[in-house]
Design a protein that fits this description.
Blueprint (H helix, E strand, L loop, with lengths): L3 E7 L5 H18 L3 E3 L3 E2 L10 E4 L5 H4 L1 H5 L5 E3 L12 H9 L4 E2 L4 H18 L3 E5 L9 H4 L7 H11 L2 E5 L1 H9 L3 H7 L13 H21 L2 E6 L13 H11 L2 E2 L5 H14 L3 E8 L4 H7 L13 E5 L2 E2 L2 E2 L6 E6 L10 E6 L3 E8 L5 E13 L6 E9 L2 H7 L4 E6 L3 H11 L2 E4 L1
Parallel strand pairs: 1-2, 1-3, 1-4, 4-5, 5-6, 7-8, 7-9, 9-10, 13-19, 18-21
Antiparallel strand pairs: 11-12, 11-14, 11-20, 12-19, 15-16, 17-18, 17-20, 18-19
């Protein structure tokens, strides 16, 4: 992950004492934020900024800011106020911050270090997207396949969606053949797969065969080779369910290991909007994240029938609950985030009998759901809690999460997709800062 390049601004009107304090504060900031930011040479307000600058930082604000507002307004960059010796905004600067915001400037005033790092990382992620980092998506005929009646409804297959993403954020979405990737994986020898995975230390279910495991490893080897061949790849996905007939495995383990070993973000089912959301969220927040299906209890039998279960759990306040489940279990989560993680044989009928799936859990407690909407202008944020995990043996929900939110009816009106990113913990405040960096209008449910 690249660092954001911050240019410190100072005021010509500063006296000798203030200039000394500016230097002392800048030295503090370099120490506190050196892991996420590169500090460029300071610039006096009114002078041109270096082309390399991604954002402006104020180690110090003085009353001259009011008089220099027109000069400041010409800097078309985010502005971060970090004026206290604790690396946060000083209370005395709130009036200047408000004044500059009212003049149309995009000013951030973090009140703790972690929030400031979210802003700085989000700025870096936004720049990285604009520079054309690559998302690889493996698919052939996305609308047709094992569940065409479902998949032909999704906006992310549309050329319009791909173009809107590129126009809004700049990244490059590159489509490659899932069929060819699967064929390349099958051509890899068992010995090569054993060699590559020798140090993985994967927790495997007793009924998972070596053949299934090695097939999953081969997909990792083939996908990693494509990433290296393409270069500058930061995200990956494939149409693994609808086009499952091309592969004797599923990419669950492969995506986990690409994230773990190479830092490449993943998403399931060819969902490019989720892949983009995952990238933004993880690079900005460094929060535990995953993608899964959300089945609000209010949906009733339309959700139950799809998961092959008879009824939702018998609980109080069902209207404000959802079952979160994907591919037979909770969903695909990187094992470093999980309280439990095990590789099992496949659960869904539509994938190859040799395929694998991850059965895992995030810690119970506060959780946040989010996703960028199809217009790339909004982000939906749902404050929630993982209350428990529920099991329906023999169904397509063998271990799903029971999630509670504040108002199920608002959620039903506000959801933009059946896919949601689930984060362990309360990340609303951080997501709001991230949204401000990316110019997304937040809807909090």
């Amino acid at each position: 992950m690249m660092k954001a390049r911050l240019v410190p601004l100072y005021f010509d009107a500063a006296n000798e004492r203030e200039r000394g304090e500016f230097k002392e504060q800048l030295d503090r900031l370099k120490e506190m934020y050196g892991d996420v930011a590169e500090f460029l040479e300071p610039v006096c307000v009114g002078n041109a900024l270096p082309e390399a600058a991604d954002a402006v930082v104020f180690p110090q604000l003085i009353g001259a800011a009011f008089k220099e507002s027109e000069s400041l307004k010409k800097y078309d960059l985010p502005m971060i106020v970090l004026t206290s010796k604790f690396g946060t905004v000083e209370m005395w600067d709130w009036e200047i911050v408000y004044y500059l915001r009212e003049k149309g400037m995009n000013v951030f005033s973090p009140y703790n270090i972690e929030l400031a790092k979210v802003v700085i990382r989000a700025i870096a992620a936004k720049v990285q997207l604009k520079q054309g980092v690559k998302f690889l998506m493996f698919q052939d005929t996305p609308g047709e396949g094992m569940q065409a009646y479902i998949f032909k409804r999704f906006y992310w297959w549309e050329d319009e969606a791909t173009q809107t993403m590129a126009n809004a954020f700049g990244m490059k979405l590159i489509h490659k053949s899932w069929r060819k990737l699967a064929e390349d994986a099958k051509a890899i020898s068992d010995d090569e797969a054993r060699k590559i995975s020798a140090d993985w230390d994967i927790n495997k279910a007793e009924d998972l065969t070596e053949k299934s495991f090695l097939s999953a490893v081969k997909l990792y080897i083939a996908a990693k080779a494509e990433c290296e061949k393409e270069g500058n790849v930061v995200g990956i996905g494939c149409n693994c369910l609808n086009e499952s007939f091309y592969s004797d495995s599923t990419p669950c383990l492969a995506w986990n290991m690409l994230f773990e070993r190479d830092g490449i973000i993943f998403a399931c089912e060819g969902d490019t909007l989720t892949l983009l959301s995952n990238y933004m969220i993880y690079q900005s927040l460094k929060a535990p994240f995953m993608m899964s299906n959300v089945y609000p209890f209010l949906v009733g039998m339309a959700a139950l029938a799809h998961e092959k279960i008879d009824k939702f759990p018998d609980i109080e306040d069902p209207d404000n609950h959802a079952l979160v489940v994907h591919c037979g279990y909770f969903g695909l989560v990187a094992r470093q985030f999980c309280s439990r993680w095990i590789l099992r044989p496949k659960a869904l009928e539509i994938v190859d009998d040799n395929a694998v799936v991850v059965d895992c859990e995030l810690p119970k407690g506060p959780a946040t759901l989010a996703k960028v909407t199809a217009d790339m202008k909004h982000i939906v944020i749902i404050e929630a809690e993982i209350e428990d995990y529920v099991q329906y043996p023999g169904s397509d929900c063998r271990n799903g999460a029971l999630i509670r939110y504040k108002d199920g009816h608002k959620v039903m009106e506000g959801l933009s997709s059946h896919h949601a990113i689930v984060m362990s913990g309360d990340w609303k405040v951080q997501l709001l800062q991230m949204a401000k960096v990316f110019g997304l209008e937040p809807t909090v449910l």
